[in-house]
Amino acid sequence: MIETKKLDYPDDFINQFLCGNTVDIMKQLPDESVDLIVTSPPYNLKNSTGNGMKNGRGGKWSNAALINGYSHYNDNMAHDDYVQWQRECLTEMVRIIPENGAIFYNHKWRVQAGLLQDRNDIVLGFPVRQIIIWKRKGGINFNPGYFLPTYEVIYLIAKPKFKLAKKANAHGDIWEFGQESKNKHPAPFPVALIERIISSTNAKIILDPFMGSGTTALAAKRLGKNFIGIDISPEYCEMALQRLDNPSSVMNKKVVHQQSSLF
Ligand SMILES: C[S@@+](CC[C@H](N)C(=O)[O-])C[C@H]1O[C@@H](n2cnc3c(N)ncnc32)[C@H](O)[C@@H]1O
Fold this sequence. Notes:
Blueprint: E1 16-19, H1 22-26, E2 36-39, H2 79-96, E3 102-107, E4 110-112, E5 115-117, H3 120-123, E6 128-135, E7 151-158, E8 174-176, H4 191-199, E9 205-208, H5 215-222, E10 226-231, H6 234-244, E11 255-257
Parallel strand pairs: 1-10, 1-11, 2-3, 2-9, 6-8, 9-10
Antiparallel strand pairs: 3-7, 4-5, 6-7
Helix pairs in contact: 4-5
The structure holds S-adenosylmethionine (SAM).
């Protein structure tokens, strides 16, 4: 294991992008130090087996893997290892939010060997309060065995005292936001989706432990909130920095590089 640089809270974290292994970095955050976590982990899509249909042009779930993949992560873990890793991430996330904190954990259900694989094995035992359906735009469905998949899920994992901001409950639990275009990251959030989440809470410090191109940071900044962004890829950390760099009102920006013990 490579030793990581010791980080100090809050100076090394608030409004910073930290480049390294998310669990190692989250372990350096004190208990109850962030109000809200908004994130989308890698979905382990390269580990897809296919959907159990003999034919189905375009319908194989192995084709659901990102076309170009991530720059520093191959998204292809053995399923049990992946579940264990995500549960370790969630354990850290739960530790660092306060009694009125929440985690919006975006994931995607899929079909493995012909059977629906929801993500219950990851979230089991964590305080899931609600599932929000994020309805995305559909594509073309060549697969005669399945209706066209059009949604992802957002698990609202909340501690007991978490409350929504005033009137946010009126949004309901099915949210329609189209995919983000004009972003070179292979799997970016739409900015408007993250603005909806952040403005539905009273949070002041928002962490994204898989921040990719920095969408959560951008949304937080637009709403006048503080952010902490973590990603394993130096390329994406730079991308996030560039995205925030304009206008120049973000304070003291830099990417802190951490060495990873995971890979
Ligand atoms: C689904 S993407 C997040 C995209 C982000 N929501 C956006 O709007 O751009 C998942 C991210 O997790 C990062 N990642 C993978 N393994 C990681 C690890 N061990 N530690 C930190 N980041 C990791 C990948 O580099 C990728 O950018």
